[in-house]
Each structure stands twice: as structure tokens, then as C-alpha cells.
């Protein structure tokens, strides 16, 4: 009987049979045969390994920080947009805990853990966070936005649009996109750490300036990250560096800035409380036609931004997994389906997250050479536990923990992966144009533009362009570019840089 006919359980061998732990993990990836939209069981279809704790912890830290940022942005934007609404930190934490309970159980544990391990977890759409204030001021409604985003995402996944766009993105374009996102993200996190550290000067308990704490936290973690890379244990970066950032900050006297305010318990899980009236919950009531119209361009933009996000996560698996592991690579269209459903369900029960493929889980999971299901189940369980306990959320969002976790777990690996993809002069040309266009406009518009140029042989590999059909060279890339550009013009994304006002 060939290996293709034998099950995972029949082919599994204990770690002691291999010369190294890495060889054992490689073999696990090669023999897995995930059931698509079927029941996958521990032992029969996959196993839990202690390496699964790494992406689970990394994803937990990342999602607490992201959810908190999203809900605070909604609270501030809606308070500014609607005269009868006053929302603050307590509201943001309560909604974050709703998001951490129900979607974690349904879409981490059940969906990606047991039902379809090829669908990456549905996490947070980081690039949309800076836009949430604009979305609220435009008159959009979180529930209307979620329903539209979910419908558009399901349509794109049904017609296999996500995987098509991934396949049409050349290595040079993808590499340039990852380099830009990694570099700008890393610089942003470094700046946030320094802003936090210099702000400690104003604390009454502090004697003189404590701005040097940020430099010490960064320096220690740079050395630690380099050491982990040297010993091929880079997948430990998020928990190791986050804990180190916490301990170093406390050791140098920044502990007075860490406060525990979130109490143990369950949030209000009644959707009627959140959406039923204009006096409680979101204080918006159910959405009307005007809310849907105002939400439309933002929903289009969010879905248009999914493909480059998903692309980056799948690339991480391809770079770190051995050959012959196609069956365990994340399926872009299945991930898009899960994200779409999760978007609608999560918001309907009272949440406000804008979802996407879960990068703070997938990136360390790929580096640790682990498939999706084991870590997904552990992560979902951790997220639910922390949502009930409450106080760990206060630790996870503390700057020396949260910023370091994002820096070493997301942005530095993105930067490294992008540099690995730029292999020759042709790729470097496409990557350079993509980086330049990202700086001029933004990464999404740059991706769409350079994909069009690259697929037509105007930049990059001219031989590759000759093998593509007219649909792949012109129609699809041009349509994506036009849709992205019109959505951005409609919502005013180019107003800050170039003074072009929103069309709507």
C-alpha cells in the first residue's frame, strides 16, 4: 500500500525514530491528510505537540492587543460621530471579551481545529484599524459593515477569487509587499515603545527621565531574537521576547504603569443587549439602509485587502514547510469562507472586529513547522480562558509586552520572508516598484498596480508574462486595481497624503 493510500495514523512514527526534532516535525507535515469540511480527530488525523503552544500563545497575545485596539477605535469614533453616544474603555473591554468567547469557540476550536484544518483562523484585519474612526464618522454601522463584508467575502471565495489572485501575484511583487509591510510595521512598533517609555517621565513616582527603558527593552530583545535565530528556535520569539520585555520593564522601574482593572466574569452574551436599542450596548440600534450605503465602500476595501494578507501568510508556510506538504498548506478560499462567516456571526452576537487571516498565529506556526489544528484548539481555549479571567488582558496590552510581541512575531518575520523571496534581478525590480508604490500610496493599491505591471512583463519576469492568458494579464489585474482605487477614493484614504476628499 502506497503512502497516499495509508492514513495519517498508520504512517505516524514516534519522535524517537528520528535523528532530530525537526525531522520528526517535517514527517508529521508530510503524512497529514486533513479532511476538508469533515471531522478531524486528535490521534487519528493530527497530534498535539508542545510546539503548538508557541503559535497559540503568540496568537493569544496578538489578538488581545488587536481586539482592544479595534474596540477602542470604534468607541472613540462613534462617540465623536453620534451626539447621543458615549462609549469608553469599559465598553471596549466588554465587547473584546464577547469577541474572544463565542468566535473563539466556533471558529478556532470547531472550524479550524476539527472541521477544516486547512482554513487558517479568522483573526483581525490590522490594516483596517486606522480607518475605523473614518468609518464611524462616515455614518457606517458595525453590523451593516459586517454583513456586507461577509457577503462579499463569500462571493469571492465561492468563485475561487482569493486563490486566483494569490497565483497571479509574482514572487517579486509578493516579496516587495512583505518587505514594505515588515519594515513599516517594525518602525511603527519601535516608535510606539519609545513613545511609551518617554511618557513615563510624567509619572509622579518617577525620578527623572525613564525614556531609556524603551531602548533597554529593545536592545535586550534584539540580542534574544538573534540568539533564537542562531539556534533555529525563532518560533519561540513571541512568548520568549514578550516575557523578556515584561521582566526588563519591571526590573527598570516601569511597573507603576501596569494597572489591573479588568475583573473576572462573563460579558453580556445577549445580542439584543448590544443591538436592540439606542440606550444600551452599542447604542446604535439595528442598521437601516443609510447605514448600509455608508458601509459599502469600506466593506469592498476590506475584502480587496484580504488577498495580499492571505498571500503573506501562505508564503510563510511555503518558506518553512518541507516539500511534499501541499495538503497542509492553508487554503486561501476556505480561509476566506471562514473569515466571511466569522465576520457576520461575531458581529451579530455583539462584537465589532473586522476580521482577516490570523497572522500572529500563522506566522509563528509556520516557523515552528506546525499545521493549523492543534494550535488552533489550544489558542481558542486560551482566548476563552483569558476572556473569563479578565486581568491577563491588562498585561497583554501593556506596551513592552504587546509591541515586542508584534515586532518579533509579525513584522520582523514579514521583512525576512520578503527578502528571501527576492532571488534575482527580475524579482528585485518588481519588489522595488512595489515598495516605492506602497510608500507613494498604500500597500493594497501598490499590490494591485505592480501585479498589473508584472503580469504584462512591463516589470519583472517577461517570460512569465508570455505564459499568462489575456484574462490573467489584463482583465483580472486591471479590475482589481480599479476596484481598489475607487473604494479608496470613495472613503477618502488618499485625503491625508494628497488632499483628495472622499467621494462619499
Automatic annotation (TrEMBL):
Keyword Transcription regulation listed? The answer is: no
Looking up InterPro entries in the UniProt record yields:
DUF3360
User: Which superkingdom heads the taxonomic lineage of this protein's source?
Assistant: Bacteria
Composition-biased stretches, type Basic and acidic residues, lie in 1-15
**Which region ranges are annotated with the description Disordered?**
1-21
Asked if the Swiss-Prot or TrEMBL record annotates the protein with the keyword Transmembrane, the reply is yes
Looking at the UniProt entry, the stretches that span the membrane are 53-74, 95-115, 135-156, 168-190, 210-228, 235-256, 289-307, 372-391, 397-419, 431-453, 473-494
What Pfam families would the database entry show?
DUF3360 (PF11840)
Keywords on this record?
A: Membrane, Transmembrane, Transmembrane helix
The protein here is known as DUF3360 domain-containing protein
Q: Which organism is it from?
A: Photobacterium lipolyticum
Amino acid at each position: 500500500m502506497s503512502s497516499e493510500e495509508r492514513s495519517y495514523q498508520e504512517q505516524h512514527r514516534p519522535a524517537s525514530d528520528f535523528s532530530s526534532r525537526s525531522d520528526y516535525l517535517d514527517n508529521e507535515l508530510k503524512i497529514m491528510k486533513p479532511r476538508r469540511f469533515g471531522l478531524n480527530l486528535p490521534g487519528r488525523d493530527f497530534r498535539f505537540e508542545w510546539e503548538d503552544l508557541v503559535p497559540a500563545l503568540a496568537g493569544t497575545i496578538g489578538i488581545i492587543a488587536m481586539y482592544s485596539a479595534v474596540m477602542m477605535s470604534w468607541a472613540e469614533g462613534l462617540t465623536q460621530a453620534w451626539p447621543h453616544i458615549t462609549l469608553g474603555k469599559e465598553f471596549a473591554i466588554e465587547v473584546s471579551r464577547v469577541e474572544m468567547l463565542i468566535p473563539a469557540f466556533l471558529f478556532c476550536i470547531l472550524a479550524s481545529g476539527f472541521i477544516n484544518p486547512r482554513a487558517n483562523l479568522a483573526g483581525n484585519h490590522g490594516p483596517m484599524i486606522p480607518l475605523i474612526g473614518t468609518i464611524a464618522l462616515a455614518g457606517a454601522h458595525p453590523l451593516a459593515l459586517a454583513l456586507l463584508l461577509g457577503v462579499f467575502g463569500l462571493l469571492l471565495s465561492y468563485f475561487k477569487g482569493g486563490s486566483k489572485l494569490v497565483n497571479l501575484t509574482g514572487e517579486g511583487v509578493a516579496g516587495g509587499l512583505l518587505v514594505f509591510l515588515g519594515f513599516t510595521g517594525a518602525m511603527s512598533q519601535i516608535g510606539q515603545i519609545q513613545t511609551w517609555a518617554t511618557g513615563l517621565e510624567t509619572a509622579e513616582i518617577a525620578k527623572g527621565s525613564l525614556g531609556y527603558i524603551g531602548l533597554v527593552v529593545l536592545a535586550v530583545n534584539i540580542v534574544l531574537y538573534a540568539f533564537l535565530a542562531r539556534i533555529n528556535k525563532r518560533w519561540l520569539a513571541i512568548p520568549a521576547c514578550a516575557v523578556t520585555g515584561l521582566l526588563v520593564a519591571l526590573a527598570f522601574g516601569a511597573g507603576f504603569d501596569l494597572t489591573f482593572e479588568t475583573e473576572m466574569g462573563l460579558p453580556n452574551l445577549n445580542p439584543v443587549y448590544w443591538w436592540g436599542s439606542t440606550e444600551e450596548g452599542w447604542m446604535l440600534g439595528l442598521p437601516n439602509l443609510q447605514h448600509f450605503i455608508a458601509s459599502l465602500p469600506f466593506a469592498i476595501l476590506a475584502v480587496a485587502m484580504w488577498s495580499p494578507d492571505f498571500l503573506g501568510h501562505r508564503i510563510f508556510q511555503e518558506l518553512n514547510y518541507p516539500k511534499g506538504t501541499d495538503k497542509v498548506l492553508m487554503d486561501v478560499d476556505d480561509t476566506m469562507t471562514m473569515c466571511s462567516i466569522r465576520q457576520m456571526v461575531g458581529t451579530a452576537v455583539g462584537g465589532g472586529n473586522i476580521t482577516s487571516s490570523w497572522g500572529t498565529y500563522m506566522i509563528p506556526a509556520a516557523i515552528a513547522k506546525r499545521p493549523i489544528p492543534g494550535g488552533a484548539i489550544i489558542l481558542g481555549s486560551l482566548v476563552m480562558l483569558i476572556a473569563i479571567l479578565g486581568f491577563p488582558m491588562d498585561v497583554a496590552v501593556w506596551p513592552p509586552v504587546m509591541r515586542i510581541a508584534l515586532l518579533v512575531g509579525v513584522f520582523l518575520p514579514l521583512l525576512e520572508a520578503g527578502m528571501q523571496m527576492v532571488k534575482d534581478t527580475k524579482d528585485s525590480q518588481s519588489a522595488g516598484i512595489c515598495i516605492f508604490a506602497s510608500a507613494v500610496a498604500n500597500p493594497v493599491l501598490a499590490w494591485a498596480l505592480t501585479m498589473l505591471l508584472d503580469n504584462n512583463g512591463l516589470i519583472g519576469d517577461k517570460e512569465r508574462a508570455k505564459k499568462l492568458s489575456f484574462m490573467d494579464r489584463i482583465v483580472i489585474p486591471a479590475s482589481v486595481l480599479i476596484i481598489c482605487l475607487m473604494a479608496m477614493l470613495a472613503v477618502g484614504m488618499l485625503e491625508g497624503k494628497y488632499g483628495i476628499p472622499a467621494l462619499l
